[in-house]
Amino acid sequence: MKKKNKLISFTLVFFLLVQTSAQANIKEELINKFSKINSLSFNFSQKIGDEVEFGSCFIKYPLLMKCEYPKKKKYVITNGKKFAIVKKRYKKIYLYPLKKTPLFYLLNKDNILDVIKNYNPIFTSNLIQYKLIDNSSNILNIFFDKKTLDLVGWKTIDAYSNEVNFLIRDLKTNIKINNKFFKIPKEEDL
């Protein structure tokens, strides 16, 4: 009986060591891959409540983003300080401080690298998930593909307490994007 308990204990410890080592390797690979990324381009689907929207998005680190929603004739844009929702159909722009949104954390590559280095990931069959709460109590879940280590999406809560699921498709990295692309227009120019 003692030999059987020792064998089970040894097997369990060995399994945990192998598992921990594999996770550490994935973490290092993820850090190496993500630290080399300066910009992203992708198509997306975004689900807020029961509504699903589609579009394309460009991110340039740090803090620049522009996502277009063609069917809604709107886009969102961040210029490093402000978060703008531009509704071309109504010729209206709604401005918010970027720092107050979960995107502020997501659009700073150093923040994401810090999360990867210092938080324990949650592994599922095909995803690596990091969950964090920022200084403004925003909850942000970041998802990476387990095989490719690509960023595949995020989940957060919007200003109206709705869950927002953002899924990335057709990801391209390190494309050249001029900073002028992220300029927030004036309403009279819409």
Describe the structure.
The protein is of the alpha+beta class. It has a single domain (2-189), classed as outer membrane lipoprotein receptor (LolB), chain A, CATH 2.50.20.10. The protein is 26% helix and 41% strand. It has three helices and eleven strands, in the order αββββββααβββββ. It has an eleven-stranded antiparallel beta sheet with strand order 6-5-4-3-2-1-11-10-9-8-7, with no helix packed on it. Helix 1 (2-35) packs antiparallel against helix 3 (109-118). The longest helix has 34 residues, at 2-35. The radius of gyration is 20 Å and the shape is globular.
Task: Give the tags.
190 residues, alpha+beta, 11-stranded antiparallel β-sheet, 3 helices
**So how many helices?**
3
Shape: globular
Instruction: Quote the beta fraction.
Output: 35-45%
**Count of distinct strands:** 11
Task: Describe the SSE topology.
Blueprint: H1 2-35, E1 39-48, E2 51-60, E3 64-69, E4 74-79, E5 82-87, E6 92-97, H2 102-106, H3 109-118, E7 122-123, E8 127-133, E9 139-145, E10 151-157, E11 163-173
Antiparallel strand pairs: 1-2, 1-11, 2-3, 3-4, 4-5, 5-6, 7-8, 8-9, 9-10, 10-11
Helix pairs in contact: 1-3
